[in-house]
Amino acid sequence: MQLDQPGSVISTESLLVELGGLPILREVSVAVGSGELTALMGGNGSGKTTLVRALLGLIPHQRGTITLFGTPLESFRDWHRVGYVPQRGAVVIKQATVREVVSSGRLAHRRAFRPLSPRDHAQIEAALTEVGLLERANTPFIELSGGQQQRVLIARALATEAELLVMDEPFAGVDLRVQDELAELIGRLNAAGTTVLVVLHETGALAPLLTNSIVLREGRVIHTGAPPEHPAPHHDSPGLTRPRLMTGIGEGVA
Ligand SMILES: Nc1ncnc2c1ncn2[C@@H]1O[C@H](COP(=O)(O)OP(=O)(O)O)[C@@H](O)[C@H]1O
Ligand SMILES: [Mg+2]
């Protein structure tokens, strides 16, 4: 099977990743097409986070190939095209304000030791506006709710003007209403052309928006293509068919 089609934003071939001497990912061959909204699913410990980290070059792989935007990972340099939203809690931010966290997303655009340019500032404000948190820009990150922190981390990725957004369990630890709002934001970004790879426990609020899925079990791919049927709607399902992408996010989130 030829996975590395033109238009693949991410592709891997026969990836082997070992951690602590144990194989964690085996024979992983996946592709994420441009413009897709792909769920990366699987049980706890199935290797989702490991795959995301390997794709972004944060941990080494022992065998196989990874290609980003058609370029082998080893020679990929366009990191400003990639926004990474790590699992919340993976990053502990004690001091920074919301604006500072989002500003760190502009680092890939800056030359060393130069202050932020007017364009950087514009991009930071736009990202904060997009997630509905401009008025909280000077609030310490740590004072925000879980859902708001998640939106700040998304804004950080948006500030990089990423074409590919990789999110690790953005719904973990946020309540269902906020999950709906995050899903709406993710859907809106995808509709505007951003390719999204999102690690999910269950398809939940994103189910109607997903265009593709990858399911791992014990480090191997057991399913790709249409998202698996969602066994139990996470709450009153009529909401899932409402047109929801046009409304703003951020209202009513305290
Ligand atoms: N640094 C590490 N050293 C050894 N094993 C690890 C390490 N990190 C993760 N693992 C193991 O790799 C497997 C996959 O972990 P992970 O990718 O975090 O799964 P998921 O994100 O799907 O829950 C788990 O069995 C986990 O214990
Ligand atoms: Mg994980």
- Low-pLDDT parts are 231-254
CATH superfamily of the domain at 8-90 and 163-241: P-loop containing nucleotide triphosphate hydrolases
- Number of beta-strand segments: 11
Described by strand count, sense and barrel closure, the largest sheet is: 6 strands, mixed
Under CATH, the topology of the domain at 8-90 and 163-241 can be stated as: Rossmann fold
What does this structure look like?
This protein is α/β, with parallel strands linked by helices. It has a domain at 8-90 and 163-241: P-loop containing nucleotide triphosphate hydrolases (Rossmann fold, 3-Layer(aba) Sandwich), CATH 3.40.50. The chain contains five helices and eleven strands, in the order ββββαβββαααβαβββ. It has helices at 48-55, 98-103, 118-130, 146-159, 176-191; strands at 8-19, 22-28, 31-33, 37-41, 63-68, 71-72, 82-85, 164-168, 195-199, 212-217, 220-225. The strands form two sheets. A six-stranded mixed sheet has the order 7-8-9-4-10-11, with helices on both faces. Strands 1, 2, 3, 5 and 6 form a five-stranded antiparallel sheet that branches. β1 and β2 (22-28) form a beta hairpin. α3 packs antiparallel against α4.
Which descriptors would you attach to this protein?
254 residues; binds magnesium ion; six-stranded mixed β-sheet; binds adenosine-5'-diphosphate; 5 helices; Rossmann fold; 11 strands; globular
